Amino acid sequence: MKFIKMQGCGNDYVYIDCLKEKVENEKEAAVLLSNRHFGVGADGLILIKKGTAADFEMVMYNPDGSRGEMCGNAIRCVARYVYDSGYVDSARFTVESMGKVKIIELFLNGNEVEGAKVNMGEPILNAADVPVNFNLQRVVNQPVNIGGRDFNMTCVSMGNPHAVMFIGESPREFNLEKFGPLFENDKMFPNRVNAEFARVINKNEIEMRVWERGTGETLACGTGACAVAVAAMLCGYADNEVTVHLTGGDLKINWSGSESDPVYMTGPAEYVFTGEIDLQKIRRFNI
């Protein structure tokens, strides 16, 4: 089976072109291929298919085999791949994931893709729709105590659930390995949650680290960067255009501040390598 390894700000996935390849057991394939010792190694598996509600469909799996609703870094890579493969001849087209359609605009230098801007849709702030079990309609800058530490939490869905905490120290110094899993699996999040820990540098710059549900720490999370920017704007920490510094690189996020307006994310999409793998051969390692 042929695959492509791509990354956006270090958020790396194995991509399979299902217009050419067939994956028999998608969940098992995600677990096998994502393993960094016995497989290819990645933050998950992305299957590229022909869309029904959009031009293309992105099917996302986490390394544990669970489905993911959306990944902003991955959808930019999907967009670059389908353009480079000649499946589209326009720099503007649509990609759906879990029924949600996103509009992609590629930045071209001649025929070379230099980046992509994604309409990530409107942020979802209603607590029941995030979902988060909290005795408020919106969870914005609300105090919580997790693992014996006090945090102020803002909850946002960008098609997947996020809990954003602004902290005093640099995220690089924060104990993500302790608090990330505690937030992910806390009972107030019925579908688990992606947890972002961020520090505001100024009105136009934020640094963050992310703990993704079903994956653990990743070098970047596009929907997480959107959630952090939205949370910062709701709390009055940031202007409407923010550069979010992630461990693997930078993403630019734009939002008007109105719940009825979409969030726009701009960032890179890069190839790492291509290859071919036999799942039957690596299956024997009982990963």
Q: Would you kindly provide a written description of the structure presented here, covering whatever features stand out?
A:
This protein is an alpha+beta fold. Helix content is 17%, strand content 40%. It is built from five helices and 18 strands. It has an 18-stranded mixed beta sheet that branches. The longest helix is centred in the first third of the chain and has 13 residues, at 72-84.
Residue share in β-strands: 35-45%
Main sheet overview: 18 strands, mixed
Tell me the span between the first and last alpha carbons: 18 Å
Which radius of gyration do the C-alpha atoms yield?
18 Å
Overall mean pLDDT stands at 97
Q: What is the helix/strand order? A: EEHEEEHEEEEEEHEEEHEEEEH
Count, helices: 5
Bin the helical content.
Answer: 10-25%
Quick one: how many beta strands? 18
- Low-confidence runs: none
What characteristic shape results from the CA principal axes?
Answer: globular
Secondary-structure-based class equals: alpha+beta
Q: What is the assembly state of the chains in this entry? A: single chain
Quick take:
It contains five helices and 18 strands. It is of the alpha+beta class and 287 residues long.
List its salient traits.
287 residues, alpha+beta, 5 helices, 18 strands
Secondary structure: elements and pairs:
Blueprint: E1 2-8, E2 11-17, H1 26-34, E3 45-50, E4 56-61, E5 67-68, H2 72-84, E6 92-97, E7 100-109, E8 112-119, E9 142-146, E10 149-157, E11 161-166, H3 176-184, E12 194-202, E13 205-212, E14 216-218, H4 222-234, E15 241-246, E16 249-254, E17 264-267, E18 270-276, H5 279-283
Parallel strand pairs: 2-3, 4-6, 11-12, 13-15
Antiparallel strand pairs: 1-2, 1-18, 3-4, 4-5, 6-7, 7-8, 8-17, 9-10, 10-11, 12-13, 13-14, 15-16, 16-17
